[in-house]
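User: Predict the structure for this protein chain, please.
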Amino acid sequence: MLASVATFAIEGIDSKEVCVEVDVRRGLPAFTLVGLPDTAIREARERVRAATLNSGLEFPMQRITANLAPAHIRKTGASFDLALAVALLCASVQVPRDWFATAAVWGELSLGGALRPMRGAVAVATGARRAGYERLVVPAENAAEAVLVDDVEVLGVPSLGKLVELVHDRWRPDPPEPRREWRPSGGGPDLSEVRGQADARRALEIAAAGGHNLLMIGPPGAGKTMLARRLPGILPAPTFEEAVEITRIHSVAGLSNGSLATERPFRAPHHTISPSGLIGGGATPRPGEITLAHRGVLFLDELAEFSARTLEALRQPLEEGRVEVMRGQRSIGFPAAIMLVGACNACPCARPKVDCDCDDVARARYARRLSGPLLDRIDIVCQLEAARPLELVSGGRGPVGSKEVRARVVAARERQRRRLAGSSALCNADMDGRLTRLHVRLGARLRARMLDGHVGTGMSARGHDRVLRLARTIADLDGRERVQPDDIDEAVGYRMTIGAKAAA
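Assistant: Here is the predicted structure, written as structure tokens:
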């Protein structure tokens, strides 16, 4: 007899529906799996056999053929175990097939029949809702994640035996805890803990207000890392839709704690990371650090120490907000809408100017570690000086805390949201050339300032648009509808290259 059950395969951060078909016929006992399964799926034959028998169910000693459709897509992982077992039980008339006409199942089986938790429950629940299934059966430990997706009933089941009892109305799982009202958290390190660095605070606030990329240059101990780690505390809290998106990515990566994200992510990989670790990839493509930082901050400390291949891999994602990974003649997309924050020293020795023995050649060689195309995608380049001793020994907290700065940033983002309503842009940094020209009108005075900026910095066409977006953000922070010449001047000042900043 033939039976089919729906399940889902993780592909990137999304899920694809897979139909598991099982045919049981008289013949010599055999269990054949087709449909491009990997080694983990081929091993599922033994897990399914042991789990079925250890759950007190009958394993048919007949010819069993299982197909994973569509057959042209390669399937990986152990998440097909439960679907194979259920389809086998349906084909051998141990459970009614009608129950699974509107239900999908997903999970890995142990030899004893218990369901093991898996990564990607939010993505699977999203796929089940998209495919129109009313119910989704998942391991009990994954129910809290899956229930974050609306319009699909999530059934957390601890074992294969309990699922059979559920189908026969002899048992009912406890409903997952109702999703609490979503509230963004306000924790994290506070900006008031930073001593001095007024210019860097200003640059950080502008970057947060418009979602702009930022590079901080300064000696060790000046506060570059300290400032960067306080950036999430002044960013606007994610919307509910963004929180679900962040949670889905972290669920696929195995980083979710089962609850909805309440803050924007902050990722700070070590400078020895590989290009695939940063961008994503692998034999079975997995999200990289840039995707794990989606809708948040990717902080690259000691930026000049990253390999050239790793840094150059950032160029297209920074421009498009998305990563495309090609593996096995197929392309898998990962979201990568991030704020890039970099920190580096002004020269190789990283000593104060009075003690620095680096010549111009060494400085130029160090500056060339960051290519022009990469720097062209950075909106703000900020120079930090070593903190003054008087600022370090003074008691109390800094002049402005994260709460006050965040209020200004949120107000600026709200102006942008209203202005950009109806477009795909969420903040000024997301605007394309057309939106930039629409929302930043260049009068005679602004044109003159931009021409001076071109002469002074030699900015590219991309840099031209980025200066206008940055000026628009500065005006939003001040609550002005129109961009002023002073806004252009300040934005142009942030376009100086790393070499110019180091020489300043």
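Residues 402-419 form the longest helix (18 residues).
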